[in-house]
Amino acid sequence: MSGSSAVSGAAPCRFAHYFVICGIDTETGLEPDELAALYQWLEADRQGRDPDAAATGENFEQSPLRRTFKSKVLAHYPENVEWNPFDQDAVNMLCMPKGLSFRTQADPREPQFHSFIITKEDGSRTYGFVHTFYEEVTSAQICSAMQTLYQMHNAEHGSANAPSSSSSSSSSMDSLASSLDEADSPASSSRGAGGYDSSRDTLYVSKALCLITPMPFMHACRRFLSQLHRAVTGTTAPPLPLESYVHNILYEVPLPAPGRSLKFHGVYEPIVCQRPGLGELPLADFPLGEAFNLLGVENLVQVFTCTLLEMQILLYSQDYQRLMTVAEGITTLLFPFQWQHVYVPILPASLLHFLDAPVPYLMGLQSKEGTDRSKLELPQEANLCFVDIDNHYIELPEDFPQFPNKTEFIQELSEVLLSFGLSANTGAPPRTRSSPGSTPSTPGRERKAVALRELEDDGRNGNLAGEELAVLELLQGNATLERLQALTKRTGVTVARVEALRAGVKCQGTEGQGGRTAAEEDELKNAKLNVQLREVFASRFTTMFADFEAFVIQSAPDLESWLTNREQMHNFDKASFLSDQPEPYLPFLSHFIETQMFATFIDNKIMSQWEEKEPLLRVFDARIDKARLYNVRAPNLRSSSYQRCSILKESAQTIEQRLMKIDHTAIHPHLLDMKIGQGKYEQGFFPKLQADVLNTGPTNNKWSHRTATAQRRKDRHRQQTEHLTLDNDLKEKYMQEARSLGKSLRQPKLSDLSPAVIAQTNWKFVEGLLKECRMKTKRMLVAKMGREAVELGHSEANITGLEENTLIASLCDLLERIWSHGLQVKQGKSALWSHLLHYQAREERLEQQQAESPVPHVPERRKSESCIALPTLRVSCIQDMRHIQMMSEIKTDVGRARAWIRLSLEKKLLSQHLKQLLSRQVLTKKLYKRYAFLRCEEEKEQFLFHLLSLNAVDYFCFTSVFTTIMIPYRVVIIPIKKLSNAMTTSNPWVCVSGELGDSGIMQIPKNVLEMTFDCQNLGKLTTVQLGHDNAGLLAKWLVDCVMVRNEITGHTYRFPCGRWLGKGVDDGSLERVLIGELVLPSTEEDSGRGCRTPPLQRSPSQIRRISITSLSGRGNKPTSAQIQEAIGEVVNTIVKHFHKPEKERGSLTVLLCGENSLVTALEQFFHHGFRSARLFQKTVFVWDFVEKAVAYMETADQMGDLQETTEPLGMTCQSLCRYVNAINSTSRSIGKDGKFQLLVCLGARDRLLPQWLPLLVECPVIQQMYEDTALLRDRTTVNALIGVLETLHDFPITLEASLVKGIDL
């Protein structure tokens, strides 16, 4: 994928950098594989045994033919290439990831091909292509050593015992190891008893030929190596000594120039390769069709989505080449993005501890035949996508967003595959982690040929058509297949795949159309299929990110200041970008724009102002510009309709034309200046090549000269620019730091694997995790704080709830990764939940012991009876766990851990709980290795400190997600003691409502002021209805407030009242609707009674109520200006409320009826200049005025006075009378203020308030009840008020059920 970057600038134009031969070193003989020994050392260290004792003992468990022995790099040419130094250990390990393997004449010995990749620190890549074959062992010393090993093995085991693999224990690494020790070949069991006997058996050992190249020309390298091997096994010697061919490919074959094709010569046939032009998708030669065929289209798209979201992806297959094909296939499809994390498509057995890495990774693990997925215990699975390539099935992480337009996308890909004659099966349905179910294990019947092994029922339903199956069954046990394979060996094509069998039975070895061999036809088909599939993926990104540039924030004046401040900078306006996207894309996009690959992509875009564009970005930008020319994307900006790729045909034609018309032919292999007699041909043996002729290339080569002059030009240019810009090394350092915020590790250093290096790698991980934690908590705070500050504006539209959810999900993922770093023994899928369970078990044991031991009972000091308040809620990590364990909705450990994190975050206890968990050091030591993050004291402290910063903001991430669970609530009613009897003879009742529903009416036992009830999650609480039936003598009741607490999250709400409930007192109300406010937790002592910090939303308090109703001229009446201002502010707040995204709005009830609400403001307006109570001897309420006005209108209507008025006015008049009468005739005993409140709310809802006002103003009753100076009698003021109220008509005002209960309108 980033092959292009590997060849930029200084890398000269040679097709291949090295030719390498790996195999057995006859000098040193049989050595056990030291990496296997290191591996045993690590295992022993982990299990607390003496590591040194473990590493020395040989592994007598396994039969000698199944053990791994050390392979060596026997030769590599040239010695060194300055721009790509030879890494002997890495190459040896990847050429023979399992070390040497031995066979006898009884075993199958087909040659194998695989590729590998080496990723350097700067992210550039080198590719290796390996042809492995078996060569007869001629060294008597080695044969006798093998014989001796067999005798020792048989003596140890008794000859009858067949070899058994080490029993798998609960430990993750042990079971991994045992699965890796399983049989290498199906025939191994038959050897168990007899084994190897040098007198009757021929011994063979594996040898590998490898080409190391800067670009992934897989097909060309494969064909070159197989021809080279054929030259050795053929009955006649090759035309030239082998040195000629190796020298030719190393020194005389150039890399094809961009957009050109190249032909060079192998031993028997010419080989053609082509390289895409600068405006095309970069080179990718691994057969994508095969990746789709192995996984099925749907599965591949799901794995691709996991890769985009930077999860941990583990590929699993017996075949190294399949691991490479799928890994390279998926990373190729990411264009224009690039995988930024650990990338090891073939993970050697000695590096298994790398699966412990707490970072996103894409790794491939070789499985052994007959091993079952269920045996494979992996260190962490919470965020793992497991891909079983051979059984065509995948396991996905929980809660995972789908790729946009997935169905249409899969449809388009299937059509491309079908057009090439490939079946577009969809693969076995992916399993998510939650569904238990073991992998379909393949029955291990022996097979005659590789091709037939593909035919087992492979988890994809009906992937082969009946006839093809019949053809292949016919071939089974038939001489045709043997002949075919013999033919294959001669033509250098391997029939490893069913498709090749399908396509090839007819035309194998014959000339195809246009004089091309079948192999070339196949290669052309592959190249065309590759490019078409890639174009479909690329076109998805071109449509999804067509406008990304508009949201890039260019804030730095020059490169230097940008690089130095990279971490503090905000480079991309995520909120605006998301608000511009179609709704269905959001779940995926909100996660994707948080990834490292997206951040790097944006960084590259910003840096392109100062330096040359990164190649992938250059191609992508050109495509976007082209799309803009043809299609102005303004009107359908937010449409989520699927746009198909329009350039499939032309992209395939480009490739075909390049392969038809060869642009460049390399020099033919020729005789070299060699000593006569060396390189003698001996059939079946690869000769020792002459190093002197292969270590230096020709000096007169025209293209090597071309590179040299280009290089000189580049050097001059660099010297000129160097004093203008940053020093390059420094810049590279900044770049690395800027890009890799804790992600710098691309690939484990394969060469040096001492325990010290492993410790250092883990140290890098620890630093990376801490950095990531700092970044994530900061993002969460900024997102939340920013939102609370910016109350309005397009940038907030439609997104914040989603964004918050994404950030919290990524925090959960980070915590899982931290908890699974350096784990001793894995239990369950979630490392965090497993730790919590251990902790819970310990604490509960301690509690039990304390309960059993007699403790002197200290009487608890109760608060004095006079103070009724909520009892304090105990803060306990275990209590929160129990709440989660009680939730039957959550089925998996990963789900429980996530719910527990959300609950702790909502309660602002996350940091405190984790600190408590980690304070049990004995437990942490038992569960974690010495290098684990959780055992690095200083980092752990900083990590908890970062989490503590999240307490600065309010999250409702538990309440809002688990909406169906049952929650216990506690209600306390606090009367005002001084003024009323705390006791009442009536029967009180209460009903609690929230954003998600209400509790229904609940009777409160007499004289009990506290009760608890269980109810389905009500969400954030909004109102409480409180009332009584007025029975008995002491039926009046003066209530200060009602407190309600959610007993799981601890959220406490206060519902102020400050009024009487009773007939003949106050406004005669027997029930009141109280509006809630969230109480911010203060000191323990204070938590029951309100709080000191100002609450978020206040609702009518006792002071306000009494001052307005009694209007006892205490000089604190608001002035007319203040009243008008208050109304303006209230209406403004309601308008803002509707401009927020729906999930962010909070409670409208508070804005209509709380403190500083529409009702209060209008009450003040109506109270202004209201004739005071002195004249009438009893308090008069605004409702009395409304009732009198309505009575007047009704009589006037009967007298016919209103007949003359215009029609609409008559209608309005009728509506006002109808509403007032409906409110008066309700069965509810709400008082006069309650009725006025109801009238205002209904009028606002039905958009009638501005029409009613003129009626009330015109009514003669106003003169008796209002002073001349009253606002209500001032025409201009009333007209202004009507204008303000009319602005609410644009919004759909819905009223809570608790407000309008019993009103029939």
Automatic annotation (TrEMBL):
SUPFAM superfamilies from the UniProt entry: Lipase/lipooxygenase domain (PLAT/LH2 domain), RUN domain-like
Composition-biased stretches (Polar residues): 697-710
Region (Disordered): 157-198, 424-447, 697-721
Biased composition (Low complexity): 159-190, 429-443
Cellular component terms (Gene Ontology): membrane
Location in the cell: Membrane
Domain RUN: 802-963, 1149-1300
Family that this chain belongs to: Belongs to the RAB6IP1 family.
The protein, known as: DENN domain-containing protein 5B-like
